[in-house]
Each structure stands twice: as C-alpha cells, then as structure tokens.
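Re-run with default settings, no changes from the original entry. Doing this only to confirm the output is reproducible before filing.
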Amino acid sequence: MEVHDMNDQLTAPDTYDAVVIGGGAAGLSAGLMLARARRAVAVIDAGQPRNAPAAAVHGLFARDGLSPAQLLALGRTEVRSYGGRLIDAHVTAVTGTSGAFSVALADGRALTARRVLVATGVTDTLPDLPGLREQWGDGVIHCPYCHGWEVRDKPIGILAVGPMAVHQALLFRQWSADVALFTHTAAPPTPEQAEQLAARDIPVIDGEVTAVESRDGRLTGLRLADGTLHARDAVAVGAPMEVRADFLAPLGLTPQTHPSGMATHLPADAMGRTDVPGLYVAGNATDPTAQVGAAASAAALAAALLNADLVTEETAQAVAARRALV
C-alpha cells in the first residue's frame, strides 16, 4: 500500500505524545480521546479492517446497520477535526523505551513517540475449505450477536473448528430452532456437551466437511466427504484468531494464548497497560471477544490513562524545574 498522510497540510511534530497503531474502531476511539486532550497524536492504519467483508455493524448503539466503511470514515473525520493525524501505512517495528519509542514504517520513515497504544485487532484463521472464504462475512459468519438477527429462523450450521463450537451452537439456538453442529475434523462432543445439545434439539452431524457450497452467490449448504449435501442458509465458524503484533517483538512483547483458547492476544491489565512501560493495548488485540462498541470503549479508557500518565510525568518535570530555580 502506498503510504499517504491524511494530514499533509499539518506540520508533523518531532516527537508525538502518542502514536496509535491500528485505525479501526478501537484505534480511532483512542485517537479521538487523545486529540481532544490536546495531545499530538498520530493514528497509523494498514487499511485491513477485520470486518470489511461484513455488510453492516450491528449491536452498536445509535449506529446499528452502518457499514464498516462508513463507520471508519466518520471516525477518521472526527479525529482529524481535533488535529489528530491519520497515516495510512504498515508498521514494521516498535523499538525504544517509554518517552522515546521509535515506530518504523514500511516506507522507511520512523515516528518518535512518548507513548504507544496498539489497537491492531486480530485476523481470523479460516479453515481451508473450498467456498468458505468467498462466503466469509455473508453466508459464513462467526458471532451470533453480530449476525444472529440476520439469520433468525433459518437453517444454521455450526462448523466445529475450535474449542468454542458447542458453546457457539447453543448460542445460535437462541436465534433459530434449526441449528446443527458439524463435527468436521474436531473431536466429538463430550457426554455432557452431547446432553446439552440434545436438550436443545441440536443434532450432531459427524463426518469431514469438504466444501461450503453456494449458488448464484448465495450459500446453499455443507458438502461432506461421503458426498452428502446438508442444506444450510448460514454457517457459523468460530475460527481461531491471531493478534497482529509481530512489530512488537523488538520490545520483547509476544502474543500469548487467550484464556478461552480461541485466540492469541497481548496481555494487559483492565486499563490497557502492558508489561512494557509506556505501551498500551486495547480492543481485539487484547480482548478477542470484544465487539465494536466494547473495543472502542476500552480504547477510550486506555487513552485516558495514557494521557494521565503523561500529565503525571509532565507535572514531575515541572516540579523538578521549579525546585531547581529556588
């Protein structure tokens, strides 16, 4: 991607108060909070939003049904209106220490920042099945709270590819009476899980799934290795998620397995602080279960703490300077 600074008319500071890496809902929320706090802030985004294939964002108060692209456009406009800078670029590495981080970009530039907030989100590791990726975000979905209403009362298949498949099937049962769990290559449900599924009238279909089939762009069902086609209008896939954070390796911060077992994430406390002083994280990068609203809220909180951290540092410096004069 060509690097383009969306605030070319502004003079870039020698050192930013904060650089936010990731320009999705979390990153823009953090950028907005910091720009309104009169901080010199840059939001760097690689232009690869996870929810880009989805038609709309759902469950977001006052913005339900807005397309992901529209939501991000509104957020970018708001950040710019308060003087925040938006830079379309890939970050390759973050080095340095609190107060003097260096954020390297793929085009060879580097930004210096007193603090860094990571909001790069995650990527979905989709099963390698013919037809699945083409339906991702449409006929193939993952979150009942994001997509359940749109597939209500329709035949839904749950493709078991991770540890949360049974939980996912029980959740989707809230939206449809016709839900079936396809074990695919996963282990069969435990006796306790089988009892739960039976109690909710969710059949378990054994056998490897070989294809997600569609007709005229619309999902029609799951094809099994024995040739059987099971008609489904939607397929839910709880695909494993990987945090986008390779650029933090120079700081010694590496992704860890999330307690759910469904993703990797960057561990942080409730305020978004990591074990690296001056480095914060928010959104799906630390909480893979967070929806858009929760990710944005967590990022606003982390940004507020980051700003308070800077105020504390600046106050200590001012006190020291004052004492030096007396």
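The mean pLDDT is 93. Helices lie at 25-36, 68-81, 132-135, 144-147, 165-172, 191-199, 292-325.
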